[in-house]
Design goal:
The protein has a 4-stranded mixed sheet with strand order 2-1-3-4, with helices on one face. With 206 residues, the protein is an alpha+beta fold. Helix 1 runs parallel beside helix 3, helix 1 crosses helix 8 and helix 4 packs parallel to helix 6. The longest helix has 25 residues. The protein has 8 helices and 4 strands.
Length: 206
């Protein structure tokens, strides 16, 4: 890979998930630290991401936003690491399923519930909350990996999201979830990524 990677981030944001993924790839990247309501809303950054949010990843001249899209794109850049199964395989489809379920229905449900405005199950992407939780628990119960026998971007994404929501009290602590995500959070890339972001907090970046 020759095109430069530039990562737009803030340590108190979803960008921690993308940071972990960047560290898993081992690819070199440049950090651009942005701040809420100031540099995230600057004309220069809005030209890259009109949403004015992080994370964003610039790969050469292409800008990728949304955590799930960034993580999936990064996985494709390092096929030798098998963070995504081979193109066209059922296992790859399964990875897409779990990454996008966490990024869409799960996050949508958590946000709606926090603000007291759950939509009717037939209209909401998250459907019935009990069905959503049963689906997630069934996906990880007794498993080390979501798809096949190796760590993939699906494990990274779901482990990051579940652990965060439990940490902040948005999901009830569950042995099923904790047994699944705890080993993944101990991966060297996860530890490195958190250390980088924690150092930014300590240095006053927040």
């Amino acid at each position: 890979m020759t095109a430069k990677l530039t990562f737009y981030t803030h340590p108190y944001s979803r960008a921690r998930v993308a940071r972990w993924m960047l560290e898993e790839t081992g690819l070199p990247y440049e950090d651009v630290l942005l701040h809420f309501d100031t540099t995230m809303k600057s004309p220069d950054y809005l030209a890259l991401n009109p949403m004015g949010k992080v994370p964003a990843l610039r790969h050469g001249e292409t800008v990728i936003t949304e955590n799930a899209a960034i993580c999936l794109h990064l996985a494709d850049l390092v096929p030798e690491k098998a963070l995504l199964p081979a193109i066209g395989t059922p296992a790859r489809g399964a990875c897409y399923r779990w990454v996008l379920l966490a990024a869409g229905p799960l996050e949508g449900f958590i946000t709606a519930r926090r603000h007291g405005a759950l939509a009717p199950a037939r209209e909401a992407g998250y459907g019935n909350p009990a069905d959503l939780m049963r689906t997630l628990e069934g996906a990880v119960a007794g498993k080390k990996y979501l798809v096949g026998g190796t760590f993939t971007v699906a494990d990274l994404y779901l482990a990051a999201v579940l652990s965060y929501y439990i940490q902040v009290g948005e999901l009830e602590a569950s042995a099923v979830f904790e047994d699944y995500f705890t080993p993944h959070l101990q991966r060297p890339a996860a530890v490195r990524g958190n250390a980088i972001d924690d150092a930014l907090v300590t240095a006053g970046a927040a």
